[in-house]
Amino acid sequence: MQLKSIVRSLIAGVGIVSIGIAGCTQARNFEANSQTQPSTSDSSADQAQAASNPEAQVPTRSPDVVYVPTPTAAVNEMLRLADVKSNDVVYDLGSGDGRIVIAAAQQRGARGTGIDIDPQRVQEANENAQKAGVSDRVQFRQQDLFQADFSEATVVTLYLLPALNVKLRPKLLRELKPGTRIVSHAFDMGDWKPEQVVEVDGRTVYYWVVPENPPANLL
Ligand SMILES: C[S@@+](CC[C@H](N)C(=O)[O-])C[C@H]1O[C@@H](n2cnc3c(N)ncnc32)[C@H](O)[C@@H]1O
Prior knowledge:
- With 219 residues, this protein is of the alpha/beta class.
- It is built from six helices and seven strands.
- A seven-stranded mixed sheet has the order 3-2-1-4-5-7-6, with helices on one face.
- S-adenosylmethionine binds at residues 63-65, 67-70, 92, 94-96, 99-100, 115-118, 121, 144-146, 159, 185.
């Protein structure tokens, strides 16, 4: 039984290792392809690009994690586990190509907002929303999720990294309304124990509900 759970953790961990490796590779490719240094907004490379092409959108700083999409089965499970309904406002923090927010609108009639630091992802997500016919119910913002106001959310979805979930935890607990549901693909929230953990197609989905009075050790 213990061996089974270790094997499961290793499978889930493949995602994060891939993210790490892909992260290094993609960051380098991004730099090579666009000749843009995805770093802080005051980097000289960013300023040079912005000056030479004012239309170009440059990430304000390097993403904390690279883009790796959640497979459809896990997206569907996240929406099921959070019991997303048409009166929900779903926020995906680090929204990539927008698939979670778009699925929430398409399948469940919810409204949604995706936040991603990478303007390329935001553009892609907007195009995908258009194609899916849900542009009237979803929006995508280029923003650092750690700076974003997502307090109107009734459901928050995450596919980040373990350390990012833990770093984000105080903001989630302080700023979200009690009763807000949170689902995370692959990664837990440290000492904040989930109410449910579900496996789907080798992926793990965690589920929490924001409590009325979060314990001090989680803040
Ligand atoms: C692993 S992908 C997940 C994409 C999508 N949520 C999904 O599950 O298919 C993480 C995304 O977070 C974005 N990201 C990384 N750091 C961020 C930050 N500080 N603020 C906003 N987005 C960020 C990346 O650009 C990437 O698109």
